[in-house]
């Protein structure tokens, strides 16, 4: 019985989070948008956060939202190779490596729902700190083909 409960929890943990993303809306070309308060929530501990500090990631996300500038981008995301030299988790970057996406709940939803490898339109806030450009995503839309 115990292994069945663990399996069910694991399957539910990796499902596309309905509270953030409606796959039917995404498929029809609608944007997924979060309020600034929702956007700063860190991803759950696990693959996206890795060995980085969950609290530091959340603190940096709040700082980006408070001090950053509006940001928009279109393209395809690339998983980061290795970690930054600080403790904030940034598991994805742009094709050209010009910015680093903080591991927030919305980024986690992009990955878990299978959208991270598709061409995207992203909106959020950007803040450069000591030469590193951090981004918190507040909205995304899958580009229609």
Description:
- The structure is a single chain.
- With about 140 residues, the protein is an alpha+beta fold.
- The chain contains 5 helices and 7 strands, in the order H-H-E-H-H-E-E-E-E-H-E-E.
- It has helices at about 1-15, 25, 35-40, 55-65, 105-110, and strands at about 30-35, 70-75, 75-80, 90-95, 100, 120-130, 130-140.
- Strands 1, 2, 3, 4, 5, 6 and 7 form a 7-stranded mixed sheet that branches.
- Strand 6 and strand 7 (about 130-140) form a beta hairpin.
Topology:
Elements: H1 2-13, H2 23-27, E1 32-33, H3 36-39, H4 54-67, E2 69-75, E3 77-79, E4 92-94, E5 100-101, H5 105-112, E6 120-129, E7 132-142
Parallel strand pairs: 5-7
Antiparallel strand pairs: 1-7, 2-6, 3-4, 4-5, 6-7
């Amino acid at each position: 019985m115990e292994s069945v409960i663990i399996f069910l929890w694991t399957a539910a943990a990796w499902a596309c989070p309905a509270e953030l993303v409606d796959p039917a809306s995404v498929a029809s070309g609608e944007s997924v948008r979060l309020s600034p308060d929702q956007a700063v929530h860190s991803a759950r501990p696990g693959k996206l956060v890795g060995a980085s500090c969950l609290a530091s990631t959340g603190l940096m996300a709040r700082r980006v939202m408070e001090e950053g500038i509006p940001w928009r981008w279109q393209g395809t995301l690339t998983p980061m190779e290795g970690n930054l030299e600080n403790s904030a988790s940034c598991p994805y970057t742009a094709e050209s490596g010009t910015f680093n996406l903080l591991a927030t709940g919305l980024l986690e939803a992009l990955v878990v729902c299978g959208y991270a490898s598709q061409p995207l339109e992203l909106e959020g806030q950007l803040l450069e700190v000591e030469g590193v450009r951090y981004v918190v995503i507040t909205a995304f839309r899958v580009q229609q083909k």
